[in-house]
Amino acid sequence: MIKLYWSPRSRSFTTLWLMEESSLPYERVLTDISTGAQKAPDYLKINPMGKVPALSDGDAALGEAAAICAYIADRYPETKLAPGVTDPRRARYLQWLFFSPSCIEPAIIQIFTKIEIPTSTAAWGSATQVFDVLEAALAKGPWILGEEFSAADVTVGSGLNFAVRLFKMVPSRPAFDAYLARCMARPAFQRAEKIAAG
Question: pTM for this one?
Fold first, then answer.
């Protein structure tokens, strides 16, 4: 049985949404970060960073939301959440799957902290560049790869949901609003949101 270790109102939302999209049976294991449960020795064996989310699947265990999305989409191809490894769309899928933790999250931190980092040294370039590039990609729609929804939409959609809709750290743009509306209309997103609210 797949076990998803999660905590309400946390980055666990991404993986809750992914698991709900997958239609795979899974057990949610509440890991209450408000009580420090993520620092318990047994939990640190699953995710030594002591963060949520984490996932175990038989002998496999991993942390990091995007990695969990990649693992489930590849381990369970019947979910149709990722192009196959020989599909030319696979390259763009991987780029966008990791765009949220590699670019969206650092850009949000840059905006929040107001830290000036030269674009030549910031791995994500600049916050403006991140959201300009994302806007251009989403304008093509309806999903990040075109007509087909994938795990990359879960990571990108979660990042935008956090940045634009929930915490309003990033100004809204028409392409973001339309994309978020499509994400929010998905039954799996709605179920995950209810679960994540605690």
Answer: 0.95
